[in-house]
Amino acid sequence: MSARGTVRLPGSKSISNRVLLLAALAQGTTTVRDLLHSDDTERMLDALRTLGVVVESLGDNAYRVTGCGGNFPVKQAKLFLGNAGTAFRPLTAALALSGGSYELSGVPRMHERPIGDLVDALRQLGADIRYLGNEGFPPLQISPAKLVGDTVKVRGDVSSQFLTGLLMALPLTGKAVNIEVVGELISKPYIKITLAMMAHFGVKVWPWSIVEGELDWQHCVVPGVQRYQSPDTIYVEGDASSASYFLAAGAIGGGPVRIEGVGRVSVQGDVRFADELSRMGARIEKGENWMEVHAPASGKLKAIDLDCNHIPDAAMTLAVAALFADGTTRLSNIASWRVKETDRIAAMATELRKVGATVEEGADYIRITPPARIKHAAIDTYDDHRMAMCFSLAAFGGAGVRINDPKCVAKTFPEYFAEFAKVTQAVPVIAIDGPSASGKGTVAQRVATALGMHYLDSGALYRLLGLAAQKRGIALEAEDKLAELAGQVDIRFEGEGIWLDGVKVGDELRTEEAGAAASRIAALPKVRAALLDKQRAFRRAPGLVADGRDMASVVFPDSVLKIFLTASAEARAERRYKQLKEKGMSANIAALLQDIRARDERDTQRSVAPLQQAQGASLLDTTPLNIEQAVQEVLSRYRAVK
Ligand SMILES: Nc1ncnc2c1ncn2[C@@H]1O[C@H](COP(=O)(O)OP(=O)(O)OP(=O)(O)O)[C@@H](O)[C@H]1O
Ligand SMILES: Nc1ccn([C@@H]2O[C@H](COP(=O)(O)O)[C@@H](O)[C@H]2O)c(=O)n1
Questions:
Q1: Residue 318 belongs to a domain with what CATH number?
Q2: Helix, strand or coil, per DSSP, at residue 560
Q3: Residue 209 sits in the same domain as residue 302
Q4: Which range marks the domain in which residue 187 is found?
Q5: How far is the CA of 545 from the centre of ligand 2 (A)?
Q6: Which ligand is nearest to the CA of 555?
Q7: Distance (Å, whole) CA 528 – CA 465
Q8: ipTM computed for the complex
Q9: What is the pTM of this model?
């Protein structure tokens, strides 16, 4: 599969839910444009309407919110908030300080996600909050607070959403409150989004909103005199976490993939995902409001060792991109993954293993070593939108992937799979089949170079297997042993060089004896079956030119162009004669003609995958053509079907 195209991103979930709540808490009417439509934003919209806030849809992802100045009209309500952490935590804080009685609940997983640290912080200010189930977890009963104290301690090392909730709610108290963060604050970029949104609504937190650069993230003051004021109109940026899947798709699948809606200028920390992807070798350009990605020039991503504190959500995308890297990737400082929609470290490790990766997981890290070939697997998604979106990238492995419960993406990106389909295409294959010495290898190689595509010399695989068999003393008729050997040998193509079990193979591969041995083992069905996957693994972005006997009929039946390239037996014998002489090898033209005829006979008459002009293949007789003419003919046929 390859990736190419443009995606217009949906609005950021983090910004959407913050803006909706701040617009509701503000004085005045706010028009919110480019809001995300998703389960999580629906939960926030429902909750605000239940609380008596007037929210009108203006169409085209725009809403008008009439703020209540921090005083919700409905003083008693039950709110169901699904699995939306960005709704549950800030609403808990705002409602705890707003003078009403409310019951807050969610789906069963939400009731397993800790909230005790936020409740403890709010209680220090006089909030009256009771747990209706397990201590420290939703559901919650909130009663009117008796406000006391001007200092609050909150843990910052479990979820930054506790601090976000507290920050957004504190201006409702009307007095200055000092916040002391206990433990190392994680996910600071999300706090920066909170501060930026609060500043849009006229509230500045000292010193965090004012000082640029490195800060003491342990203390701040929310001044008492500031009230939320509507900014009139606010635009929601595209979602930088959602961008990560498409950026990774471009990096793995060739590109260019362009994303619109978020770029160089953004309040979202996850935009830095692009920098980490470029550390893996991806080539990325950025504009103010867009980014464009190409795969690394080498075609392969580099493995990295990364502290992911600055991109906790987008880091999941790196875990799956690691399947396409050249070594072991380690992602650390990701303990917060364990308290998200699911235990994301455990889920990620389980599903990566299914596609063949070797994975080590720790309390706050994951190490991923990619498999030689990504296996087909049915991926469980744990009701976690990011698991579903991340694992769509495994499809670039070529073996296909099944995503169970794909609709869970509705949490943040209901149209994800439709958008993914728009920018992904099957990697194009040009199949060139034909008899021995017809020139298919020469032509295929030059066409691949002209188009910047990869090249597969499938005959070399049969030749290599024949050589390996002879070296191990395996008879060329021993079908089972040969098929087993096909699964064991390590074959590597790099540039012009070919390695068999780590040893470079020379001209011995090109002798007529090696060709004849290859032709004998190629008639054995189990051998052909054993080599099928090895050949298909060559199909990589941006495209493949494959030559052989059954490229169009069996190995790549969906090739965009199928050529049956031939020449008279006499012309072929003459070409082979010249070729061998040029290499300083001995040759006899009559013997070569006889050998070519024998090979044609065996290749066309065998029962499995016989050499033939496949259905849909066009004939190219090169007897009267020179090499360049044959190459140009293939290129012009490709242009015609492209
Ligand atoms: N159109 C052509 N005119 C003249 N010579 C050609 C032409 N095409 C290829 N040749 C030459 O013929 C020889 C055989 O070509 P090549 O090895 O590409 O054939 P092939 O079909 O791939 O053979 P095999 O299947 O045995 O690997 C080479 O020396 C090549 O340069
Ligand atoms: N797809 C293929 C490719 C090759 N073979 C067999 O291997 C022999 C050697 O191939 P060369 O192209 O390197 O000459 C050839 O004679 C075929 O018997 C095949 O079966 N299928």
A1: 3.65.10.10
A2: coil
A3: no
A4: 2-235
A5: 16
A6: 2
A7: 11
A8: 0.97
A9: 0.73
